[in-house]
Amino acid sequence: MRRFRWKGWLGALSALLVAVASAAAAPHGDSLLVPDRVWTADGDAAHAGWAVLVHDGAIAAVGPLDSINAPAGAQRIALPGATLMPGLIDLHSHVLLHPYNETLWNDQVLKEPQDYRTLEAAAHARATLMAGFTTLRDLGTEGAGFADVSIKRAIDEGIIPGPRLFVATRAIVATASYGPGPRGFRPDMDLPSGAQEVSGVDEAIRATREQAGRGADWIKLYADYRVGVDGSTQPTLSLAEMKAIVDTAHLSGRPVAAHASSDEGVRLAVEAGVDSIEHGYGASESTFKLLKQHGVAYEPTLTAVEATAQYFEHYVPGQSEPTARMREAERAFRTAMKVGVTIGNGSDVGVFTHGDNWREPANMVRDGMSAPQALHAATDVAARILRQQQKFGRIAPGLRADLAAFTGDPSAHIDDLQHTVFVMKDGVVYRAPQATP
Length: 437
Known about the structure:
The strands form five sheets. Strands 1, 2, 3, 4, 5, 17, 18 and 19 form an eight-stranded mixed beta sheet that branches. A four-stranded parallel beta sheet has the order 11-14-15-16. Residues 3-27 have low confidence and may be disordered. It is α/β, with parallel strands linked by helices. It is built from 13 helices and 19 strands.
């Protein structure tokens, strides 16, 4: 199936690249966006009858349509039946991966050439942008070196369409603790690794500096992994090693994200000073209170658990009972909400199909959030986690014009995020219904 989708995509990409190049070369000018309603992320309710004026890539005005004085010649874009929102943000993505029911993770790392994976990532970036996600934090190339830095550059230079990328290059892991292998493979084989292996404080510092020098915006470490004798999740990096990574990253102004699934792994990562916890499925209430105390953000990645349950545990959405792992993830998510932890929208997309990122906010609502809470997690809250709240994440004058519109009203019905009709990034329209002069 993927082979046939690629043929259609390549034709569409050729036409789109011409349009993108033209748009990037021309002045942004003025656009008046007229939806049925506007959800600004400054509150919980959408505003009926509001409009947004965009000037030279920034939001110039937002409010009731009759209160906005659009310049003569401004392009008017009608979005009937739609809600206009800030462009959505996914804080945990892997543009260099594709779903494991297509190709297992080991086979992607061991058998797919990096050049091929980078070309695939261009398709993934386009699908993400067209779905209304205008920003991604990409947390690891999974064996593809520093390819994410090149993808980010190609997007920034207008060579390929895609969201704003904040990249982590190669995740940092303890020696022999991450795949492929080494368990299950011949000991005399020198396998490519899905991440950068370190042992000791000096190597941890060296790896952090190397990744920063190569272009990482964030540093990612693995606080734990499935290294127990019985395959259970156990801490891998020591507190000293993690603290060395965090201190080195923070010296250069880079935040740190930690993969951590066990209670002990989460606790150690928070004590080391990380800025966000990814997954956290086994964390206890006392450990989530530690996150709250230290101001550490949490990305629950509920959809990754659901997707792997579909692939490997025969789970069928809407028909099956949640699996044990899904119930564990839900418990952690509800505990984090109860404690008041800052929760950002992070899906682990790549485990499932790029462009289906809407599933994470939908799963957040399924597991206890209100629709507005889930939208905040994917807009203004996510922007604060990225330290970019003065640039995007809300619809407010002076912020960049990263915007998306969806048929219906996602602030009332979160599943409406599936129905994208308009996407603008930095004032450039990438998806729109027929515009009128």
